[in-house]
Amino acid sequence: MRSDWIVTGPNLAPDATEGVDGRVYEGPPGRAEAQAKAKELGEGHGIRRVSGGGSLTALPIIETQANDISAYIPTNVISITDGQIFLEPDLFYAGIRPAINVGLSVSRVGSSAQTKAIRSVARTLKLDMARYNELAAFAKFASDLDASSRRTLSRGEHLVELLKQPQYKPLGEPDQVYTVYAGTSGLLDELPLDQVAAFEAALLTHMAERFPDLGREITSTGALSEGSTKTMQDAVAAFRDSFIAGTADEA
Questions:
Q1: Catalytic: 108?
Q2: Are 158 and 188 in contact (CB under 8 A)?
Q3: Residues forming CATH 1.20.150.20 domain(s) in the chain
Q4: Of 31, 48, 49, 108, catalytic
Q5: At the fourth CATH level, which superfamily is domain 114-123+143-250?
Q6: What are 129-150's pLDDT values in tens digits?
């Protein structure tokens, strides 16, 4: 928990919430700064803690037995937390990393924790993944699927590939917006699965080089204006077409 500090002096009231220099020094680094300031001001000056702000965050990690999330301990911990991230071994060994089960992972905060830019492109993501997971289990035993089911499977398969993240390579918010939009808009549905990773890498390089203002707008405001949204949509679609044409020429 964070503590705030002030510099005290001979004429400072006992209930003062600001120091003799008019400042409040925040957190652990603030204590050292306040001590340095008191020393600078000379004899009769010291420091005092004025608050213990913030909150204590707990991150319980639970190992389930045979992926049973309904057992006694997981159920009780989940009931007192703000959600859970459920990691599944089968997904990990299938190459889906991080191995997050989208259907069983829950956030009580929901999309309110997302920026407007992310929310605008990801609003169908979880539903698409839920439909895919449900249909994928059924499709193993089905010899023939209708066109709608095939489209759902294709969308889900491409989203799975798109959401795979190499270790120690986090994406900035603009990159997340571009890639999630490419997946949820269906632009990748016809792309061979083994080319999704190459497409993503090439797309992010292209957007950073050709549309740096879009990235700066997302980073600084967390949102995209109507005009910038249209620019992004056109840019990603045009790059998809050129990428497909380029791979066709190579073949």
A1: yes
A2: yes
A3: 114-123+143-250
A4: 108
A5: ATP synthase alpha/beta chain, C-terminal domain (1.20.150.20)
A6: 888 988 887 777 766 788 888 8
